[in-house]
Amino acid sequence: MTSTLIWIVVALVAIGLYLSWTAGRLDRLHSRIDAARAALDAQLLRRASVAQELATSGVLDPAASMVLYEAAHAARQAEEDHREVAESDLSHALRAVFGESAQVEAVQAAPGGEAAARELAQAVRRVPMARRFHNDSVRAVRALRRHRTVRWFRLAGHAPFPLAFEMDDEPPTALADRPGT
For 46-83, how does the pLDDT look when each residue is reduced to its tens digit (9 = 90+)? Predict the structure, then answer.
């Protein structure tokens, strides 16, 4: 009788430790999503700011400046529900304006244009990386939250189910191919 009781207590302690470890892991993964989302937001804001600054610098032709400025402004002002679409529109505008290397060369020829082109190329390249990190974190949390143990014992608490950030983040070819950025 006593050995059975000891084995039951040992089993309950082992199950409790496993559940505690799983809940801690889930909490760490949720924290990782929060950090990755903050990094993604920072990179998206940086890209929109650099694009907006370049659009108002007078280096681009008026039509390209308007297209780029409106897309960057819409991306910075977008509500959370429409953010993915606005950021995709900014990617489309960047590809339309900087689709050919002649436009990049024209920007570089202007005073301060080399630094502006380099900063824009860096910003455009960092967005896909930040988005990939965020979506990888979301994928890890989703995989863990699908386990029966997590669902049965409600280890996720009241945390919302994480959503991936889906957008078109393909960089313009003229900016993506720039060496040294």
Answer: 999 999 999 998 888 899 999 999 999 999 999 999 99
Q: Say how far apart CA 124 and CA 146 lie, in whole Å.
A: 34
User: What single DSSP character describes residue 81?
Assistant: G
Closest CA to 72 of 96, 43, 48: 48
The C-alpha atoms of residue 169 and residue 89 are separated, in whole angstroms, by 10
Question: For residue 53, which amino acid is it?
Answer: E
Coil, strand or helix: which one is 169?
coil
- The span from the CA of 171 to the CA of 121, in Å, is 8
CA distance 173 to 154: 47
Q: Is the pTM of this model over 0.85?
A: yes
For residue 74, give the amino acid letter: A
Q: Helical H runs in the chain?
A: 2-55, 62-77, 83-97, 101-109, 113-145, 148-152, 173-176
* Other C-beta atoms lying within 10 Å of the C-beta of residue 46: 18
Tens digit of each residue's pLDDT (9 = 90 or more) over 133-180:
999 999 999 999 999 999 999 999 888 999 999 999 999 988 876 544
